[in-house]
Amino acid sequence: MIELIRQYWPNYLYTDGFNYNGLVITLWLLVVSVGLGFALAVPLAIARASRNRYLSGPVWLYTYVFRGTPLYVQLLLFYTGLYSLHFIHEHEMLNSFFRNAMYCTLLAFTLNECAYATEIFAGAIKETSHGEIEAALAYGMSKYKLYTRIILPSALRRSLPSYSNEVILMLHATTLAFTATVPDILKVARDVNSATYATFQAYGIAAILYAAIVFSLIWGFRKMEIRLLAYLKPQGH
């Protein structure tokens, strides 16, 4: 394995000499999909938690579809399915977008991540203490201030443990990117295995890299939970 690492470690970590590869691509997929998914999920979660069916209904349908179908199927639909439609070819921008494997992969990952995050945040919003809401209304807060100062900060803090698990699951899901020829860690491991026939070593290195990322995420989220959820711990007398 040491000789394999010495020969192929640039491919696993960042580049094959021409394009970015491996760890860099995996982290890029994770950061972009989680970042965009979070940005979209917050307003959608507010709509999902609304009592107005015209707001919550479409969001429920979106999350139902994307949580109810496999991510792999969604990726194939975006990468090969949509490109087979005639109107995609007729529109220059759409044609260029759906011909790019990275764009299609990021789109599928982002929409899938957003669907799960939306339900997590919406559940936390619905579980906000009525006492906090009544106190804010009694103080004279507008609905906008009520959400930005009370409901959202509290909900996002309380949803942190569930959301951290979702981010880790999203990291695991990035392994599907190799099916769209995106050169992530798993794609590099498969190429190394094809070149060397050292199957255990090739995929063993990939497993170590994924485990290192997961442990880093767990450590980071644990630190955030200790800091942001300290007020929920029982206070000593």
UniProtKB/TrEMBL annotation:
GO terms for biological process: amino acid transport. It comes from the Bacteria. InterPro entries: AA_ABC_Transporter_Permease (IPR051322), AA_ABC_transptr_permease_3TM (IPR010065), MetI-like (IPR000515), MetI-like_sf (IPR035906). It is found in: Cell inner membrane; Cell membrane. Keywords: Cell inner membrane, Cell membrane, Membrane, Transmembrane, Transmembrane helix, Transport. CDD domains: TM_PBP2. GO terms for cellular component: ATP-binding cassette (ABC) transporter complex. NCBIfam families: HEQRo_perm_3TM, PRK15069.1. The HisPMQJ complex is composed of two ATP-binding proteins (HisP), two transmembrane proteins (HisM and HisQ) and a solute-binding protein (HisJ). The HisPMQ-ArgT complex is composed of two ATP-binding proteins (HisP), two transmembrane proteins (HisM and HisQ) and a solute-binding protein (ArgT). This is Histidine/lysine/arginine/ornithine transport system permease protein HisM.
